[in-house]
Structures are given as C-alpha cells and as structure tokens.
C-alpha cells in the first residue's frame, strides 16, 4: 500500500478500520490487498490471458494502460481471508467493503459499479 496514492491509501485504511470494528463484518472475513502497483510487463501478460493464453479474460487493458501501471498507484485490488483461511472474492463481501470505501472518500470508484464488465475486486481514485 506504500505504492498507493495517499487518498486511496487513506480510504482503504479507514474502510479497513471500520470493517474490523464491526463484529459481524470481522467474523465474515478480513480484507486484504491482493495488488496495488502492477508493472506494464505483468499487465501485458494478464491481457494475454483468455486471448493468446489459456484462462478467463481478467482485464481489458494492455500493458501501460491500466491505472495499476502508474506510480504512485491510484488503484488497488481487494480480496478477503475467510475464517477457514481460504481467500475469497465474494461479490457480497466486496460490495459491503465498497460501501465503506466510498463512505471514506467520495472520490473512490468501485469496479463493481462499472457498466458492462464488473471488476468487483477493483478500487480506484
Ligand atoms: Zn484492479
């Protein structure tokens, strides 16, 4: 998170504190950042997935086009560690976390709100 732009880092820290301060949410799982800065080379590899490489399409941005490719980085991706230790990308948990992120800073945009391709783990300013 040291690579994140300050407003995004502050929004995440506040949303995380609210999440962990809520006994129901805390029992559901713990938010984690899976990625913040991503090199243009890695972005290009991800772009190939579902196109010239096997797997599902995970991005529509080529290397250098994603907000993840900038430093400091105005984007981060979130997942959850569930009580059993599994990593989860639950849409329900992500939508609950998105509410806290948007409440922390009105400039936060959630990929789950985008028309068309929903990128629910994704937050950006
Ligand atoms: Zn993302």
Mean pLDDT reading: 96
Radius of gyration: 15 Å
Ranges with pLDDT <50 over ≥5 residues? none
N-to-C span:
14 Å
Order of helices and strands: HHEHEEHEE
Structural class: alpha+beta
Helix content: 25-40%
Rough shape?
globular
Question: Would you give an account of this structure?
Answer:
It comes from Hymenobacter daecheongensis DSM 21074. The protein is an alpha+beta fold and 125 residues long. It has helices at 6-20, 23-28, 40-48, 91-104; strands spanning 30-35, 75-81, 87-88, 109-110, 122-124. The chain folds into 2 domains: 1-37 and 74-125; 38-71, no CATH class. A hairpin with a 5-residue loop joins strand 2 (75-81) and strand 3 (87-88). The structure holds zinc ion. Zinc ion is lined by residues 68, 75, 77, 119, 122.
Summarize the structure.
One of its GO terms (molecular function) is peptidase activity. With 125 residues, this protein is of the alpha+beta class. Helices cover 35% and strands 16% of the residues.
Set down the secondary structure blueprint.
Layout: H1 6-20, H2 23-28, E1 30-35, H3 40-48, E2 75-81, E3 87-88, H4 91-104, E4 109-110, E5 122-124
The structure holds zinc ion (ZN).
InterPro entries: Peptidase_M15C, Zn_M74/Hedgehog-like
Domain Peptidase M15C: 95-125
Protein name: Peptidoglycan L-alanyl-D-glutamate endopeptidase CwlK
Keywords:
5 strands, single chain, 125 residues, binds zinc ion, globular, 2 domains, alpha+beta, five-stranded antiparallel sheet
């Amino acid at each position: 998170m040291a690579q994140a732009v300050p407003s995004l880092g502050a929004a995440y820290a506040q949303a995380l504190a609210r999440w962990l301060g809520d006994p129901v949410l805390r029992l559901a799982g713990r938010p984690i950042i899976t990625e913040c800065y991503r090199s243009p080379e890695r972005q290009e590899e991800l772009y190939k997935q579902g196109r010239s490489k096997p797997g599902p399409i995970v991005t529509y941005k080529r290397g250098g086009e994603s907000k993840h490719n900038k430093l400091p980085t105005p984007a981060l991706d979130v997942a959850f560690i569930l009580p059993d230790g599994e990593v989860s990308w639950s849409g329900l948990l992500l939508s609950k976390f998105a509410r806290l992120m948007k409440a922390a800073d009105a400039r936060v945009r959630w990929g789950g709100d985008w028309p068309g391709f929903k990128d629910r783990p994704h937050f950006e300013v």
